[in-house]
UniProtKB/TrEMBL annotation:
The keyword Flavoprotein applies. It comes from the Bacteria. Its cofactor is FAD. This is FAD-binding oxidoreductase. Residues 30-198 form the FAD-binding PCMH-type domain. Signal peptide: none annotated. Belongs to the oxygen-dependent FAD-linked oxidoreductase family.
Length: 473
């Protein structure tokens, strides 16, 4: 029995905790019924799960914190959950983290140890999914993509062996784990990371009227491309339900690694470039990296409150509703006319909950060669995309055709600007040549590595690398 072999917990459909155990971040996948959810507490637990799945012939689904937009961390087989493997320990020149650790917990645990790591812009994403896909956020411009800082990884392979992947050991696997996508090459149980040197940070937020949205979007993009690498920033167009007087609004926010006066000057420059004034502008007091990141990610919530509701007695973090999305990477600032076209696709006249979101990239991330790691997008300046959501169960049950149509229109508006796609922000509509779109010229090498480490495709999901496909396609 698998249960007897685990230090952790196995939750089966007949167990009281099953309803919660099968949840991902997105409510869309609440209807998926895995045959069991194994909360692993050690690498040996992970090995036992892999062997069990192999011997019984059931699919294995690797899960960190369940943020996969397209539901790749669940299915009808055994969910191998890493969320309890969540240590974070300073270890000489590196930081060792359990692959299931969430951003907010890593920031918190490392604070007293005088070290920090790169995270994304959402508190509960796990480092396992974040790093294996690349790892983008407000530190990208200053410190590179998260996976550029992986020194080594402990990995349980499809045949149940455990290996260490680094520049010297299993170098091909090490290369693939840095951006080749989660759930594909093995189950990472622990990473050793190069920490970031980021003692102080300042958070900031500005709000702009929707009437100026095209000017603001174009100006923000050119500002971000030209800005010092100390700047980490996102822009989101929010629908009327979140704006003043029911009108949509544009929010620009992020963190700054430099002196507060430099941030103030940079924000003045943003105002100058837009040719209009924000309705709100606020910069926090400079503070410790962990504190400022926590505040920007979680607001006034405590660490425990900031977790997803149900995963801790105090947790009140929200889940995401049924969502459709279209995201691409773009390689330069948009013109005013292009900004207009992106906003027309977003469509200010709709009432639905929907967003146009951009994260500024470039900087240190683009000083690494395209083939040095599996993350190929070294010319990207922005992650740009759209999301639409519905909480109406009837509409979901009917099949939300309007959501798909909206996302398709948005995807079409983005297409002329796109340089590729980021595997951690996959579009709902999967393009025919998605591997090239996500991995470019690194695709053949990823297929070879998949064949070498998982020849029968034991680890697979909707967009995992297919080792059976010809390597040179
Ligand atoms: C609200 C939201 C905000 C986000 N913000 C950002 C952001 O700012 N920056 C960014 O880069 N991304 C962001 N993402 C995307 C996120 O990085 C990816 O969805 C990531 O894969 C999630 O990892 P997870 O473990 O939380 O999710 P899961 O659904 O558990 O896993 C995602 C994928 O990774 C695989 N995986 C998970 N853990 C491991 C492991 N230990 N070993 C091997 N494979 C593993 C899974 O099999 C699955 O294929 C965001 C996603 C959401 C939903």
């Amino acid at each position: 029995m698998l249960r007897d072999q685990l230090k952790g917990e196995l939750v089966l459909p007949s167990d009281p905790g099953y309803r919660l155990a099968r949840q991902l971040q997105n409510t869309e996948y609440d209807t998926v019924a895995p045959s069991g959810v194994a909360y692993c507490e050690s690498p040996e637990d992970v090995v036992a799960c892999v062997r069990h799945a192999r011997e019984t012939g059931i699919p294995a689904h690797i899960r960190g914190a369940g943020h996969s937009f397209n539901g790749w961390s669940t299915g009808t087989g055994l969910v191998i959950d890493l969320s309890r493997m969540n240590h974070a320990v300073a270890d000489g020149p590196t930081v060792r983290i359990g692959a299931g650790i969430q951003s907010l917990d890593a920031l918190d645990a490392l604070k007293s140890q005088g070290r920090q790591i790169v995270t994304g812009t959402f508190p509960t994403v796990s480092q396992g999914g974040f790093l294996t896909g690349g790892g983008l956020g407000w530190q990208t411009r200053k410190f590179g993509v998260g996976s550029d800082r992986i020194v080594s990884a402990r990995v349980v392979l499809a045949d149940g062996r455990t290996v260490r992947a680094s520049a010297d050991e299993h170098p091909d696997l090490y290369w693939a784990l840095r951006g080749g996508g989660g759930g594909t090459f093995g189950i990472v149980t622990e990473f050793a990371l190069r920490p970031v040197d980021a003692p102080r940070l300042t958070g900031f937020e500005t709000l702009w009227p929707y009437d100026d949205a095209a000017d603001v979007l174009a100006a923000w993009q050119s500002w971000a491309v030209d800005a010092a690498e100390d700047l980490g920033t996102s822009l989101v167009v929010l629908p009327g339900i979140f704006g003043p007087d029911g009108k949509p609004i544009v929010k620009i926010w992020g963190v700054h690694h430099g002196e507060p006066e430099e941030l103030a000057r940079a924000l003045d420059e943003l105002t100058e470039r837009t040719g209009t004034k924000p309705v709100h502008r606020e910069a926090g007091a400079p503070g410790a990296y962990a504190d400022v990141m926590h505040e920007v990610l979680c607001g006034s919530k405590t660490v425990q409150q900031c977790h997803r509701t149900g995963t801790h007695p105090d947790a009140i973090g929200h889940r995401h509703p049924y969502t459709r999305q279209a995201y691409r990477l773009t390689g330069r600032a948009v013109t005013r006319a292009e900004a207009d076209s992106l906003l027309r696709a977003w469509n200010p006249d709709l009432d639905d909950e929907r967003y146009l979101l951009c994260i500024a990239l470039g900087g240190a991330a683009n000083r690494v060669g395209r083939t040095e790691t599996a993350y190929v997008h070294r010319d990207a300046q922005f992650l740009t995309g759209y999301q639409i959501a519905t909480r109406d169960e009837e509409s979901v049950a009917r099949g939300p055709v309007e959501l798909d149509e909206w996302a398709d229109r948005c995807g079409a508006a983005l297409a002329p600007l796109a340089t590729g796609s980021y595997i951690n922000f996959p579009s709902s509509r999967v393009p025919a040549d998605w591997e090239r779109d996500h991995y470019g010229e690194n695709t053949p090498r990823l297929r070879e590595i998949k064949r070498a480490y998982d020849p029968d495709g034991f680890f697979r999901h909707g967009q995992s690398i297919d080792g059976a496909a010809p390597a040179d396609r």
